[in-house]
Each structure stands twice: as structure tokens, then as C-alpha cells.
Here is the input.
Amino acid sequence: MIAKLSLDKIVQMIGSTPEQSVFDWKRTFTPPRDDAAKGEFVKDVMAVANGTAFTRLPGFVLYGVNADSPDPFVGVAERWDDNEAQALVRGALDPVPDFLYYEVLAGDDRVVGVVHIEPKGGFFIVTRDLGRLREGQCLLRQGSTTRGVRRADLIKLYLTPGYGYAEQLLQQYGAAAAMTNAQTARLQQLDRMQQQLVRHMYASVGLPPPF
Here is the structure.
């Protein structure tokens, strides 16, 4: 279950975390009603979710925040519901990121919108045209900008030690091979014990062993 950020944690994050692959903030936010706005929200979620494939850490998009201001809380223009956010993303990305949209009171009737994404692995890809997004697109945050996923990103994700996918497969096959080897060794040990027992029985009655 995703644990919601407190306002104090948001203040700390804004003050100490620059925009990066798993952290983004937006000064303004209105619940997306048309395709252009819906596509922009899906892009925000996808780009940060794809960043979590590398960091293996949660990702965040904060709405209604201006980190460059002494008072960083602008507030969202209108309240929104997680059910709508989930339905929108579910219909536009494959696989579906493990995320939660929630809102945190920031004082003076201001509300900060939070997209909180848990790492799930792999890359998330657009499944249909939506606003400026196109089917098959896969976007990733780099610093404070968003760009398409490149061949080097795929190589890094699947082949670099520590990022998990090829490594996990090798570990799984290695564990299976180790189990097979252990079972084989145990059967060989039992076979040797059985042969020793047969030899002992034959010797006890004065007969030569059969093998």
C-alpha cells in the first residue's frame, strides 16, 4: 500500500530535491478534461514511472507547487479524484504504473496534488493517441526535461548489473540449476549408500558383490 506524504515531507522534498528522473513539479494544475490535458497528465506519470525502472525508488509529481518561490505552495485550481486518474492512465499506458493520486492541504485553502508512483519495473508505453501523445511512445525524464526512451536506455535497463532484468533471469536460472545440481548430488549419494549396503549384505553371507 502506498503511504501518503505529509506536508512536512513535501516541504523537505521541495527544498532538497531538484527536478530529476523521478521527481517533477508543476506550478499549475486543473483536472484534465480534454484530450490535450489528459495526454499531458499521462505524459507526466509515464515519464516519472519510467525513471523508477532505473532508480528502484518511488517517483513523485507535485502539482500546485513552485519550488523557486519562498512560499512554494500555489495550490491546484480544482480538486480531483484518484479514481479518475487511475481510469485515465489505465486506458492509456501498458503496463499500468502502480501509482496513487492524492491531495495534501497546504494551508489557506491551498491544496497540493501528488502523483506517487511505486517502482514496478520495465518501461511504460502509450497504447493510444491522446492529445500530443502517440501510440507506441515511451517517454523518460532527464533532469528537468522529458525525452523519448533510447536504445542506450534499453541496454542500460536490461543489461547493466544492478538494474535487474537480465540479472534477475540469470539469478533465477542459476538458482534452478543449483537446485537441480543439489538434487542430482543427493540421488548420487543415495545410490552410493545403496550399493554399499548391497555389498555389505553379500559379504556377510560370503558371496562376491554383484558390482
Q: What stands out?
A: The radius of gyration is 28 Å.
